[in-house]
Amino acid sequence: MTEEFQRDRTFAASLDDPLSVYHPANREPVRLIVVSSRQGVTSMIHTLHLRGVATADEWSPLQPEPMTGKWMSVVTKYVGL
After folding, report:
1. Rounded CA gap, 11 and 15, in Å?
2. Whole-angstrom distance, CA of residue 65 vs CA of residue 78
3. How far, in Å, CA of 64 to CA of 80, rounded?
4. Rounded distance between C-alpha atoms, residue 31 and residue 19, angstroms
5. Phi, psi of 65 (to 5 degrees)
6. pLDDT, tens digit, for every residue of 26-76?
């Protein structure tokens, strides 16, 4: 499954941009959001890094999640269709 992920910073959307900003015919953006305590988010980012899903430096900086006040980080990956 992880081989479907394609790391390409050229097409990474910022957190303020809708996912539809760049949508090539053969790739679809998928946004991964982790919400937990600071330690929980950091731990999950490291786990996903070790599993080859997203490198630690691809994730957004930790920020408060607006609804719960917990911490969150976001990454956008692209999957082939």
Report:
1. 13
2. 23
3. 31
4. 8
5. -80, 125
6. 889 999 999 999 999 999 999 999 999 999 999 999 999 989 999 999 999
pTM: 0.66
CB 46 within 8 A of CB 56: yes
Per DSSP, the residues of 10-26 read GGPPPTTS-GGGS--TT
Beta bridge partners, 36, equal 71
Tokens 């920020």 appear where? 63
Q: Identify the DSSP state of 51.
A: T
Residue position matching structure tokens 């992920």: 5
Chain-centre distance for alpha carbon 62: 12
Q: How far apart are CA 63 and CA 73, in angstroms?
A: 7
Phi first, then psi: what are they for 77, rounded to 5°?
Answer: -115, 165
